[in-house]
Amino acid sequence: MTIKEFYEKIGGDYDEVLGRLFSEALIKKFLIKFLADKSYQTFFEEIEKQNIEEAFRAAHTLKGVCQNLGLGTLYKSSSDIAEALRGGQNNVTQPMHERLKADYEYTVECLKAID
Amino acid sequence: MPVNLIDRLYGFIIGNGKDGELVKNKEKQIYNAVKTRFIMGSVVIALAAVMIGLNMHYTTEHIMEQVSGFIQSAAEKSAENLDTIFANYKSSIRTIGILYGRIIQTSENADVTRLKQMTGEVRFDKLVYAFPDGKAVSDDGAEYDFSDNPNFKKAISGENGIDVSVSDSADIKNKLCFYAPVPAGEKNIGAIVGYLSDETVYKYMDQDILGYKSVVFLLSEDGTIVGSNTTEITAETIGQSILETGNDSEELAASIYDSLENHTPLVYSVKGINGPSKSYLTQLPHSGFALVQTFPSQAVESMRATVRNDNNVLIIGLIVLFACYTILLVVIYRRKQKEIEQENRSISNIITAVVKMFDRFALVDLDNNSYEYVSTSENDFFPGIENKGDYYKIKESIFSNCYLHNSKNETMASYTTPEALREALKDRDTLMYEYSEEYKHSSKFRWTNLSVICIERKNGVPSKLLMACKDETKLKIEEIRKREMLKDACRQAENASRAKSDFLSKMSHDIRTPMNAIVGMTALAGNYLDDKEKVKEYLKNITSSSRHLLELINEVLDMSIIESGKVTLSEKEFNISDMMESTLDMVRASIKAKNQSFCINIISFEHENVIGDSMRLQKVFYNILSNANKYTPENGTIKVTICEKPSVQDNAGCFEFIFEDNGIGMSEEFLKRIFTPFERAVDSRVDKIQGTGLGLAIASNIVNMMGGSIKAESKVGVGSRFTVTVFLKLISGEKAAPEEFAGRRALIADREQGTCEAAAAMLESMGMKAEWVTSGSEAVRLVAEAHQSGEDYFAVIVGRKMPVMDGIETARAIREKVGDSVPVIIASAFDRSDIEGEAREAGISLFISKPLFKTKLSAAFRNLLKSGKGDNALDGDDRDIFKGNRILIAEDNQINAEIITEILTIYGIDVDYAENGKVALEMIKEKPENYYGMVLMDIQMPVMNGCDACREIRKLEGDYYRNIPIVAITANAFAEDISETAGAGMNGHLSKPIDIDNLKSTLSKYLK
């Protein structure tokens, strides 16, 4: 699967990412790094502990990374979570959790399929 | 005003109804008072005069009494005197008779010589010797016959006596004679008679009283005057004498003769030459004569004169006194008159003034049902009204269409009946009514103030009234207007208050949520005191809820600070292009999220660098744009137009920013309140949209503080348009347009003619030759023509969206026609990411974001010059352009940090990495000064966030720490976050996701 195909699959904008990051090589490099990013895991750990602030930061970071890498659907679901946690409130609903989980898993799955 | 009006009013006021009486009456009063005093004075004087007269009269009588007493004693004395003298003469003649008898012895011896000897010794005026036969001889030798002489007969018979002489017998005129016998032995040999002449008698009787001659008569028993001391009296008897002196009174004569006969003394009044006097008649006891002496009338007169003189002095005194009194009265009268005049003038002034205050007057006599009417108004409302007439009738005609204040039913007619007026004035003297009156044949109203003054009462019941009317229409209209204004103000205040309450209730709801969390968590923590882990968790939650609460409260406080006008605007240089870019960064994500189409245009723009409060301006634009975003449905359109207008001020530019959307719009009614704090439209469409209702109020306040204006236009369901006009100071000596592109040709193709013109003007200001077209095909044609003529354009800028042939198609067509010889730049307001691949494919050389500011165009052109043409610019020639710089990146997320590091490394920049703010701070402190050329700082970081780190760095000693550029990297930034970065001392910000163009322009701004 090419990078472009990957973006088409996950509902991201390849051209946009390319516009910012110039080369596919770079994009690929960063995408692989994304697999090592622990923000997603951190979020669940913190939310489990009712540690809203830390959970927010994790979601926010995840969102930022997705934004930089143009990971469309995951960006959307992580952004929603971050907004739901903004200001120390916990307005995150179960469907939001589930969606984030689904999006993340799908994205990771796709990522792993890149040549 | 009629001249006699005041006089008439005087008449009215004093209540007699007659004209002009007041002055006269008052004068009359004074005149009468003075007159009374004058008369009283006169009476006193007259009484005094009578007293003096009476006194005079009594004094005269008193004088006469005194005179009587005086003359009595004088006359008694004279009588005694004369009697003694006469007695002496009588004894003298007897002695002479005896002596002469002894000498002659016999009558024969008698001779004149011897007689003469006798004469020498006595003081008789004539001495006669009579022989016994009656022959007589005098001492002067004359001879007489005394034979019939009674005195001779008495003497020869031996009698010695005194008598009135008998003139015919002795031929002498002497009045008194004394006789005695001449004895010789036993026989009388003759008789001797001595005569006293009138002169001698006169001499004896001569008397003066008080220096005046007192007339004395010697009377015989029958009243014949036998002697007197005056020669002026020719009368022979006392009776004649009385007549002569004018005392024509028989009664008096009778009493005189009575007195003579009875030998009783008598005092009587006589009229003297000089006035009344007194005479006294008394007897000489021995000689048988009577004597009348009169008090000299001159003396009486002089006595009276003395008294009179005294009285005269008194009278003159009185007259002088009276004159003084009169003068005094006159002076008092004059003074009073002056006072009255003064008073009249004052009253006249007062009345004139009062008359001016009122328009109409009427004097009403309730008892007689009559009135008198005066109008002072130039345009009398009742031209037909009679000056006098029947009160009841006139009242009905005037007042029946007048309505009492605030009453539609009660007319003044019922309030002005004599009965009603009497009742109303029972306990007081004045009444006041305010009534409105309809003009006949007109819907207009007139307001009148009617004063009723009771000026006369009979037995306490009002009988005469003065009615004064005053037109108050103007005042009333003004009053009504003011009342309305007050009502409006009140309504507004109420609305504001209600809005505030509403806002507070909303806010309190928002506040309650974190508050509940805090309270709840605190309670839970209390339950698990032993479980450290749980308590820690709860405390964490409490902290985060408290922070949220604090944020919320801060927002409200900020708003109230702006509202109270305590905010001061900063004056800093900034670039409008940058500021707009930052603003758009803040809303881009939301706009994209709602898939709204966004376009931004510049219509002429001269000055990009200005002085002002960019943060606040950004806040204004953000508030407007975020509203546009919020209230415009998905796929809607938001359009921004920027325009620099000709400014009237030398050193300030006038900038207009227009924000349009095709969203839900606002009702006209809400549009009026849109800038009022706490207002949010009550609308089911917006219930779900969050907001404090402060955004536009804050925006409006800021713009007003900047001396600009903000205007809102909207239509429900159509959209809204906000126009912000601000004046910003220009930087004097702003850098001249870069000359590096001078003379080069550029072509602009955009569907908007305005955009084309603005861009062309901008390029021309840079010294370039600009052409523009509004369609892609036209652009392609021109490019081909230019290519053929060997004068290729330096650059072609195409708008992304154009009808028929869009930007990408145009670029493709150009590439087909002229190959790669001409760079094509595509200008897009926003979402270029979705077309980027296609664009590259089509041969687009560069992307440029709208609006087309000068600095952006210059940067793009510079890129073109550097890179030659095409894609190579992206990774090829940019390599190492910032070589030799070192940047510190603070970013908690490794991937993000790596992405940036990667890009920066391409540019030849050395990058150090810190995972949070605290580490970054330590690193800066550790490294020598000027080690880093710049810091890129993420905001959201654990341990120490970007803002705190920046604050700490700025606090360090040294210019390096104060000046090192620190740029924030923000994701999906909120306006507040951006404000905070500036507040913390950051120089600018970059938004995530990292955009190479933005990053590069930021780097070129701060790096060598």
DSSP strand count of chain A: 0
Secondary-structure element sequence of chain A? HHHHHHH
- Residue stretches of chain B low in confidence (pLDDT < 50, at least 5 long) are 15-20, 868-876
Q: Share of helix among residues of chain A? A: over 70%
- The gyration radius over C-alpha positions of chain B equals 76 Å
Strand content of the residues of chain A, in percent?
under 5%
Give the % helix of chain B. 40-55%
The major beta sheet of chain A can be summarized as: none
Main sheet attributes: strand count, strand direction, barrel closure of chain B: 7 strands, antiparallel
Could you tell me how far the N terminus lies from the C terminus of chain B, measured between alpha carbons in angstroms?
93 Å
Specify the number of helices of chain A: 7
Rg from alpha-carbon coordinates of chain A? 14 Å
* Biggest sheet: strand arrangement of chain B: 16-15-14-20-19-18-17
Structural class of chain B: alpha+beta
Indicate the multimeric state: heterodimer
Largest interface: A-B, 40 and 45 residues
DSSP helical segment count of chain B: 30
Mean pLDDT of chain B: 80
Description:
- Chain A has 115 residues and is mainly alpha-helical.
- Chain A has helices at residues 3-10, 14-21, 24-36, 39-48, 52-69, 72-85, 94-112.
- In chain A, helix 5 packs antiparallel against helix 6 (72-85).
- Chain A is elongated.
- By secondary structure, chain B is an alpha+beta fold.
- Chain B contains 30 helices and 37 strands.
- A 7-stranded antiparallel β-sheet of chain B has the order 16-15-14-20-19-18-17. In chain B, strands 21, 22, 23, 24, 25, 26 and 27 form a 7-stranded mixed β-sheet that branches.
- The A-B interface holds A 4, 13-23, 26, 29-30, 33-34, 36-37, 39, 49-54, 57, 60-61, 63-65, 67-70, 79, 87-89 and B 513-514, 517, 537, 540-541, 543-548, 551-552, 832-840, 847, 874-875, 892-896, 898-899, 902-903, 906, 940, 942, 971-972, 992-996.
